[in-house]
Amino acid sequence: MPPRYRHKTSQKIPAMSNPATSKTHLETSRTRPEVNKTRPEVNKTRPADSKTRPVVMPGAITEMASRTRLEGRGLADMNAAIKTRLAATTGAIGVGVAGLTYGVIEAHRFIVRHVEVPVLAPGSSPLRILHMSDLHLLARQKAKRKFIRQLATLNPDLVINTGDNFCSADSLQPLLDDMSELLQRPGAFVFGSNDYLVPEFKNPLSYLLSGRSHQADKPVPELPHEELRQAFTSAGWLDLNDKSATLEVTGRRLAFRGTDDAHHNRDHYEEVAGPPNGEADLNIGVTHAPYLKILDAMVSDGMDIVFAGHTHGGQVCLPFTGAIITNCDLDTDRVKGLSQHSCGGHTGWLHISAGLGCSPFAPYRTFCRPEATLLTLVPQP
Predict the structure, then answer these.
(1) Is the pLDDT of residue 1 over 50?
(2) Alpha-carbon distance 51 to 100, whole Å?
(3) In 107-203, alpha helices (H)
């Protein structure tokens, strides 16, 4: 009979698990379904405004980071653009202030220019003519007044005044006082608008864009122009406003013709038109504003030389390029100084004064000093 215990030992007894491990395994198994059951409920019942941080996927994180960088870059670009614009605006204002300051200073740098004109007959002795124009005088302008008084020391044989003498009624007597010595010499004159009318403010931008100033649409107060005319003619000066006359200077017979202010359509050249004075040693044309219709007519009629003002030499000029406008239909190349004009088969000399002043509403000049000119007329070669 086989041993009793052999059957028992041949039975394979399963190994017992660690009690602690088994317990944990069972507990985990029991709670896992509960977690699985409750998790969807949590997801379903989470309110829309829950403060729980949403789950962000890696791709979304990358997109958000890229967007943040772009937004930061956009703000930086915007700040840079603002700074650039501010710098440009500040620079423009600075340049404008500097330019205006320079222009005001330039308007007080008076100068006498000396020009020689070969226009007299061979063998003639020189003739010295002082050309003054566009004083636009105000009584308070002490530096300009001093300069005007000093002009008499140039000892001209003849004075030609091409208008725009003063800006206010109380400036008339100071003007006559300052010109008192010059009025003792032979002279001739025409008027400009600022001998007739008080100057008024005009938009400088429209002036620059259109190339010339325009008459006011409303009535403008008048200046005491008849008192000025009386003072000049009483001193022996020739009134050439749409008139002609002759004058003997240093033994020579000079024939003059002139017009009133063409800029305000006061001119009537037909009243003085015609051939030159054959008995005169020199035929001289005088006008305030050098419009081409006046220059053409005078030169065609045989004037040897024409005097004009009005342009202020361009007043606001640029370095190297010169005048921007002429305030009439004349080209900018001849806006001031000595040149020639041809028309009708004749050629005559033309002298345009840049003037001594400017409107009180635009008291500046750039690259265009205020001037009076002493012309020495000499024999032709």
Answers:
(1) no
(2) 64
(3) 142-150, 172-178, 193-196
Closest CA to 232 of 242, 240, 243: 240
More reliable by pLDDT, 44 or 205: 205
Rounded to whole angstroms, the Cα distance separating 231 from 245 reads 18
Taking a C-beta distance cutoff of 8 angstroms, is the pair 164, 136 a contact?
yes
Q: What are phi and psi of 198, to 5 degrees?
A: -70, 135
Report the pLDDT value the prediction gives residue 101, as an integer from 0 to 100. Answer: 84
HSE-up (13 A, CA, CB side) for residue 222 = 6
The predicted pLDDT at position 207 comes to 57
CATH classification (class only), 111-213+221-379: alpha beta
Q: Answer for the pair 155, 376: CB distance below 8 angstroms, yes or no.
A: no
**pLDDT at residue 145, as a whole number:** 98
Match 């603002």 to its residue by tokens. 82
Closest of 332, 263, 329, 340 to residue 298, by C-alpha: 340
User: What are 68-86's pLDDT values in tens digits?
Assistant: 666 666 667 777 767 676 6
DSSP state of 295: H
Question: How far, in Å, CA of 188 to CA of 159, rounded?
Answer: 7
> Measured between alpha carbons, how far is 244 from 260 in angstroms, rounded to an integer?
12
Amino acid at 213: S
> What residue ranges do the domains of the chain occupy?
111-213+221-379
Tens of pLDDT, residue by residue over 284-331, are: 999 999 999 999 999 999 999 999 999 999 999 999 999 999 999 999
In angstroms, the CA 229 to CA 237 distance is 9
Of 212, 154, 158, 204, which is closest to residue 184 (Cα–Cα)?
158
Going by the DSSP 8-state scheme, the letter that residue 282 receives in this structure is: E
Q: Please count the residues of the chain.
A: 381
CA 40/CA 105 separation, integer angstroms? 87
Under the banding of pLDDT at 50, 70 and 90, the label for residue 195 is: very high
Taking the model in full, what pTM does it have?
0.75
Show Cβ contacts of residue 369 under 8 Å, excluding neighbours closer than 6 positions.
106, 109, 110, 111, 354
